[in-house]
Amino acid sequence: MSKAAQSTVDIINARVPGYKDLQMLLVNQESIIEQILPMTTVEAHSRNTQLDVAGDWISLGGVDLQINGALGLAFPDLNTENAHLLPKISQFLWDVGVDGFLPTLVTTSIENIQRSLAVIADVFPNQQAGAKILGVHLEGPFLNFQKRGAHAAEYLLPLTIEEVKRVLGDYATLVKVITLAPELDPTGVVIPYLRTLGITVSLGHSQATAAQARRAFELGATMVTHAFNAMPPLHHREPGLLGAAIIDPDVMCGFIADGQHVSPTMLQILLRASEYKQGLFLVSDALAPLGLPDGVYPWDSRQIEVNDGTARLPDGTLSGTTLPLLVGVQNLVKRGICDVETAIMLATDAPRQAIGLPGITSNQPANLLRWHWNKATKELTWQRLLS
Q1: pLDDT more than 70, % of the chain
Q2: Is 248 a known active-site residue?
Q3: What crossing angle do the helices spanning 340-347 and 325-334 adopt, rounded to 10°?
Q4: What is the H or E stretch that residue 280 is in?
Q5: pLDDT score for 47
Q6: CA-CA distance, 354 to 101, in Å (whole number)?
Q7: Would 4-55+362-385 and 61-354 be classified into the same CATH topology?
Q8: Does domain 4-55+362-385 have CATH number 2.30.40.10?
Q9: Rounded distance, CA 352 to CA 253, Å?
Q10: CATH number 3.20.20.140 given to 61-354
């Protein structure tokens, strides 16, 4: 912790996402946000040390709810020999502006899932520096074969309570989110079962109709995985899974803003249809080569080629990206898809909301980012503040 974070600090003239006008943030000696107050009260609350950010935006760090690996390690490949890379990945993610993340395990064998969960379970209670593991996201193996995308077909499983129990094993409390195709369970018993375990259910890699999606939401599903990707397109007579999600106030949709997974025009449609800040959050969907240069890398039993941050299988199937979460924020603003405040919230407050965590408010650790918008160059940059 820097000297500034060891003393009481008033951050003044700050724009804070979700707050009107300029604010001041009172940060105590334990680096906790005590209060966020309008600048009109600065005289009454001013203390000795002040940091004037001159109208820049101040936010919490990002939270990435869908990230498949980094620094060459895919999370489904975790084992006792490479477990030492997890702290390095956490530090790397912290350095690129991420406060917390859900290591995401894509479809693989139950043995691989169990092994990876065991490694994460050992690290989970003993985390030190860097971005914090907030739980695990299981993206599969309960996915629709027709919408599997880059997921290995041989490991897909039927969606039953018995199969869910086999996959979770002894690690149900570690799993925070699970992506599944709801149409695979016409009985409707799996989603309520997962909710009793405290697991957030996200719909994805699915052929669900709007009616099937609505039923899944009624049963307790509250999220959608990478909107537009691996699901039926929006259609004026059959809005599908995504259409049902957009109009449901209790459902939040993750989306990727790398410029490849979804066109800027469709992202604008999504944001406008969702009344901007409501019901959406950014994810990176980053793969193991995150933090490494472009090239060809192993991916399960196959290979992926990374070019300009986009990863594809040899047949051209889009398999993910290698761009950090906050690049998505910058892309949204640079391409005119939304304003600065909205873009920041989509990577910081919104993903926290999706998994039941508070956004920027009092009594939160002051793990803060300072964002500067250069109107002349239309560049949005950020830096860590007080740490």
Answers
A1: 95
A2: no
A3: 160
A4: strand 280-283
A5: 63
A6: 13
A7: no
A8: yes
A9: 13
A10: yes
Cα–Cα distances (Å) from 271 to 179, 246, 265, 338, 379, in that order, read 22, 10, 10, 8, 21
Task: Choose, from 56, 185, 248, 285, the residue flagged as catalytic.
Answer: 285
Segment 181-203, tens digit of pLDDT: 999 999 999 999 999 999 999 99
- Number of CB atoms found within 10 A of residue 353's CB: 17
- Tokens representing residue 198 in the block: 């405290």
Q: Is 383 helix (H, G, I), strand (E, B) or coil?
A: strand
Among positive and negative, which fits the CA dihedral 323, 256, 196, 207? negative
State how far the Cα of 17 lies from the Cα of 145, in Å rounded to an integer: 40
Burial code (b: 16+ CB inside 10 Å, e: under 16) for 199-214 equals: bbbbbbbbbbbbebbb
The CA distances from residue 41 to 9, 67, 113, 333, 346, in Å, are 15, 41, 53, 31, 29
The C-alpha torsion from 324 through 363 and 28 to 45, rounded to 10°, is 110
Q: What value does the mean pLDDT take over residues 96-115?
A: 97
Question: What is this structure's pTM?
Answer: 0.94
Instruction: Give residue for tokens 């239309």.
Output: 378
| Rounded (10°) angle between helices 110-123 and 85-95 | 70
> How is the chain split into domains, by residue range?
4-55+362-385, 61-354
**CA–CA separation, 214 and 212 (whole Å):** 5
Measured distance CA(104)–CA(114) in Å, rounded: 13
CA distances to 130, 235, 328 from 273, in Å: 36, 14, 19
